[in-house]
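Quick review question:
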């Protein structure tokens, strides 16, 4: 058989997608070295992870940045950091994706300035700023400003790049975190498209882009999606995305060129489904999830980045990221996937699945638009409540065994894994000295600049923010003056204010009337009665800048279902705020959720605060991605319980919380 003449084969292989790994930690210099190693291994694009202070507009020496600097990404506090990050990497020839949202304008201005310093033509620079602020109110929590002001910043970036950086994707509509927060495929498509409509409406209504150029805007809008392990369903979801995007951009915005209406997306496959238990199973999960966005040629991702097998344990090492890169390379270069046209064209099964997702997503999109658009749906809490409820239902199915997770709720017998034999050595460790160096660095940067020039630049930024002027020119002036990330965001905070998004807990339920929950509810009632109080009170706290609140919200929902009165004030709290709430609300237990790796700084700060407030007796429990050795350290410091991703049974966790309260109060 002459395989090269096979009639179903393409005349030549498709070009593979852009291959990335999501990378950044410790410092700009360390991340630059990591970028160089990854590119040498065959990675074809960069995907920059920024640390939480950078993402939320704080400098390394801010109180809220304590314990967070360099942990989940690279700290970039000023132009000097951006120079170090891309030192020796020609930006004109490097496709760079930056996962940055609220301060996207600022980071793009830093990036473009470094490009110009390198002699690059900005019109040649290609890449993406994520810049989808809506999903931050719903899932990741790295928002700063109110929704309307945030959309204004996005529209300003779109208008600027259209003129100055036409190959740049100024916004990356991000449904990835919607799925992480609980969205079904139908909700993921519907809610993401509602966000895209809000962005395009904001650009159109800003008056900065002529109507005849909306097609040019549309063709630079990209999406960043999630792909779960149900890869057949994921293929249908991606094809449905394309159908609806083509329809919306043609009918709502009058884009007549079909090439401009093409659905363009990158993907990070699902991290939520990765398990701490039997983590070797994550390898096959990642491969199956990758198939969901590569198998269908007509709906294939333009760029792919894969998580590492040990992300449920901590920060991946370079070797772990290399393994994930090699998965992509084997699929692209060893398999025959890229040699064929779309494998699902004409499939009755796929057509029916796509139609089902399209129909459901249209309903969700129409519902959001009827509410007044995605901003109104955020401010009323509709979107957040829908996601919390969907995630609660997903957790219920896993706990009941209706959804099987191998190694977690079925087939749990296992051999010892050589991959995790090294314990904490199986993940990247961030040197605590990194934060001290960053703090010292930003203070020296401030001391070495012209204060009058800085003040003038910030004054212009505040003045322009109070009008409808595009803020990119003032931001670029701030970059050149030596303004820091925290100062830029602080100036806009003064004009726009800050925002606290709805928590979405109202009306959400989790365990229903399952027998286990009924028994726990009886224990809660009995314990409250023995303590002489009406109800047990639980404070759920999110210290520091970690905005991944899904776990905290699910604990809050299940605790409330069990009869607790739950105090939950949302994300991004100082230790002092958590302690004050615990004392003022007279709670029986404090539960802290930390997923950023800052637990060894954030948790002792709360314990110290409780002692200073005269409540050393108040029990504290902690949940998060916490290595075993760190868990021992926290327990030695006085933490009553430490929960990690392997503790998936929420009702069991709530039962344990009752036990902690009883023990703290000397009840049998």
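Suggested answer, residue by residue:
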């Amino acid at each position: 058989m002459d395989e090269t003449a096979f009639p179903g084969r393409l005349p030549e292989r498709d070009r593979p997608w852009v291959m990335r790994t999501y990378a950044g930690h410790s410092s700009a210099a360390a991340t630059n070295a990591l970028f160089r190693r990854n590119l040498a291994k065959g990675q074809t694009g960069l995907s920059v992870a920024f640390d939480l202070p950078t993402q939320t507009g704080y400098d390394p020496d801010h109180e809220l940045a304590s314990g967070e600097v360099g942990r989940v990404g690279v700290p970039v506090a000023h132009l000097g950091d951006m120079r170090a990050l891309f030192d020796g990497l020609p930006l004109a020839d490097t496709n760079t994706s930056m996962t940055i949202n609220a301060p996207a304008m600022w980071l793009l201005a830093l990036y473009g300035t470094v490009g110009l310093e390198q002699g690059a033509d900005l019109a040649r620079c290609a890449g993406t700023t994520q810049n989808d602020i809506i999903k931050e109110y719903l899932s990741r929590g790295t928002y700063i400003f109110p929704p309307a002001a945030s959309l204004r910043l996005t529209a300003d970036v779109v208008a600027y790049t259209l003129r100055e950086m036409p190959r740049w994707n100024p916004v990356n509509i991000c449904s990835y975190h919607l799925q992480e927060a609980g969205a079904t495929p139908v909700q993921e498509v519907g809610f993401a498209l509602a966000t895209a409509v809000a962005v395009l409406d904001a650009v159109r209504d800003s008056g900065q882009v002529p109507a005849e150029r909306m097609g040019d805007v549309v063709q630079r809008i990209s999406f960043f999606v999630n792909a779960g392990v149900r890869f057949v369903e994921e293929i249908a979801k991606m094809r449905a995305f394309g159908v609806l995007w083509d329809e919306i951009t043609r009918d709502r915005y009058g884009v007549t060129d079909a090439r401009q209406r093409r659905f363009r997306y990158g993907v990070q496959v699902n991290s939520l489904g990765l398990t701490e238990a039997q983590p070797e199973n994550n390898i096959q999960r990642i491969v199956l999830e990758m198939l969901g966005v590569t198998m269908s040629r007509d709906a294939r991702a333009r760029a792919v980045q894969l998580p590492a097998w040990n992300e449920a344990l901590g920060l991946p090492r370079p070797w772990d990221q290399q393994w994930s890169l090699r998965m992509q390379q084997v699929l692209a270069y060893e398999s025959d996937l890229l040699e064929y046209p779309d494998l699902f064209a004409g499939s009755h099964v796929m057509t029916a699945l796509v139609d089902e997702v399209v129909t459901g997503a249209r309903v969700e999109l129409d519902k959001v638009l009827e509410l007044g658009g995605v901003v109104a749906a955020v401010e009323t809490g509709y979107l957040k409540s829908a996601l919390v409820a969907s995630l609660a239902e997903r957790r219920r199915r896993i706990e009941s065994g209706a959804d099987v997770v191998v190694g977690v709720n079925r087939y749990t017998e296992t051999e010892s894994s050589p991959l995790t034999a090294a314990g904490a050595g199986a993940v990247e460790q961030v040197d605590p000295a990194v934060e001290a160096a960053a703090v010292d660095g930003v203070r020296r940067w401030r001391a070495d600049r012209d204060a009058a020039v800085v003040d003038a630049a910030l004054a212009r930024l505040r003045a322009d923010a109070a009008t409808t002027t595009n803020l990119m020119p003032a931001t670029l002036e701030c970059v050149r003056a030596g303004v820091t990330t925290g100062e830029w965001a602080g100036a806009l905070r003064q004009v726009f204010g800050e925002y606290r998004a709805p928590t979405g807990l109202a009306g959400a339920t989790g365990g229903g009337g399952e027998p286990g929950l009924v028994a726990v509810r009886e224990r809660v009632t009995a314990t409250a009665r023995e303590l002489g109080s009406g109800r047990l009170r639980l404070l759920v706290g999110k210290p520091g800048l970690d905005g991944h609140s899904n776990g905290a919200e699910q604990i809050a929902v299940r605790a409330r279902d069990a009869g607790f009165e739950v105090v939950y004030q949302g994300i991004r709290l100082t230790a002092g705020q958590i302690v004050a709430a615990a004392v003022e609300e007279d709670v029986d237990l404090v539960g802290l959720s930390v997923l950023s790796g800052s637990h060894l700084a954030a948790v002792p700060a709360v314990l110290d605060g409780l002692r200073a407030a005269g409540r050393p007796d108040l029990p504290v429990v902690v949940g998060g991605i916490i290595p075993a050795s760190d868990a021992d350290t926290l327990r030695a410091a006085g933490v009553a319980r430490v929960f990690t991703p392997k503790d998936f049974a929420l009702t069991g966790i709530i039962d344990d919380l009752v036990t902690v309260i009883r023990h703290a109060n000397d009840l049998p």
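Why it works: The chain has two domains: 18-336+343-399+415-423, 515-665. The radius of gyration is 25 Å.
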